[in-house]
Amino acid sequence: MSQQTPAISPSSASQTAQGTEPSPVIAVSALAKRYDSGFEALKRIDLDIRRGEIFALLGPNGAGKTTLISIICGLVNATAGKVLVDGHDNVTDYRAARAKIGLVPQELTSDAFETVWNTVRFSRGLFGKRPDNSHIERVLKSLSLWEKRSNKLIQLSGGMKRRVLIAKALAHEPQILFLDEPTAGVDVELRRDMWEVVRELRASGVTIILTTHYIEEAEEMADRIGVINRGEIVLVKEKRELMRQLGRKQLTLHLQKPLASVPPALSHYPLTLAEDGSVLIYTYDAASEPATDSGEHVSISKLLNDIEDAGIRFKDLHTEQSSLEDIFVNLVRERQ
Fold it and tell me: Where would I find the beta strands (DSSP E) of the chain?
């Protein structure tokens, strides 16, 4: 991946005074969308996006992710509610609001017989920006597209075409970038390259909002995570806080000798037997377990001592922690 300087720098006018709470770069209030058929795609969404963060929006198919993004970007009209983009109402002050945003859609839609260079250069002109070949060059180099600048889009791989979509979105120097399923259909290596591009953009001051079906994408990159289901925001949390509060840990002990049942002396622990009594499993909430200075959970130490006192010997143990995917699936299932 090219190590070029990121193509965008934050607007100094949008910086907040040191020590003050920054205003959200996107503020969504009571946003609703009801189609003529009566279907409610969004139900009074309230959401603030912080300046300079990577915000991942997760949800199952049909949850309302693309509808929400489309309304914020001014592509779909809301039934009710309000959207401010860096302080600009996206309806009454549409041009100013839209100029702040770059959108990378799911669909690979471009003129197949146009060159990469002309495609990206034309996108800049659509926003009334003066030609700036040096900026277009920086964008293409940052996305490893410079060597392909004279190629027609029809000659590019699917991954390269997706990079061209990102280049088009960055052509007019937006402060906010929406990525709607940015790595759909992209191989693992190229996906990780694109993650690096996103990190570089964030480091330059660009706010990133992405929707994704790849849970590891959110777990890898996001600062905060929002979950939407059936048109409603289920939760918005710092990623680390979400993992801490909702993640579960599991301690698995492989016993030297099978047990017929859990001994009465250990009955106050949430223990279960598996594999015909040869495996003892303890499941607990990581957030609720007090820790010693060394970081070891007190209850785990006590559990192991009590297991030894009960005359149980084990030959191996390991721990597992819930992934973001586990947490997401559980959240959605609880609200079905």
Answer: 26-34, 40-49, 54-58, 80-85, 88-89, 101-104, 176-180, 207-211, 224-229, 232-238, 248-255, 271-274, 279-285, 314-321
> In the CATH scheme, what architecture does the domain 12-243 have?
3-Layer(aba) Sandwich (3.40)
Q: Which residues contact 4 (CB under 8 A, 6 or more apart)?
A: 138, 141, 142
pLDDT at 2 over 90: no
pLDDT of 139 higher than 50: yes
pLDDT at 293 over 60: no
| Token duo for residue 91 | 């309806």
Strand order across the 248-255 sheet: 271-274, 279-285, 248-255, 314-321
Under 8 Å CB-to-CB from 205, ≥6 apart: which residues?
A: 8, 9, 10, 11, 52, 175
Comparing 12-243 with 247-334, is the CATH topology the same?
A: no
Collapsing DSSP states into helix, strand and coil, what is residue 210?
Answer: strand
CB 156 within 8 A of CB 116: yes
Domain boundaries, the chain: 12-243, 247-334
Task: For the full predicted model, state whether its pTM sits above 0.85.
Answer: no
Rounded to whole angstroms, the Cα distance separating 72 from 47 reads 11
Q: What is the dihedral of CA 170, 172, 177, 179, to 10 degrees?
A: -50
d(CA 313, CA 310): 9
Q: Give residue 271's pLDDT band: very low, low, confident or very high (50, 70, 90).
A: confident
Q: How far is CA 175 from the centre of its chain?
A: 18
Residue 258: alpha-carbon gap to chain centroid: 44
Asked if the model's pLDDT at residue 302 lies above 60, the reply is yes
Gap between the Cα atoms of 172 and 96, Å rounded: 12
CATH of domain 247-334: 3.30.70
Dihedral of CA atoms 161, 164, 169, 172 in degrees, nearest 10, equals: -160
Range ranked top by mean pLDDT from 67-71, 125-129, 194-198, 310-314: 67-71
Cβ distance 168 to 127 under 8 Å? no
Both structure tokens of 220: 């890898």
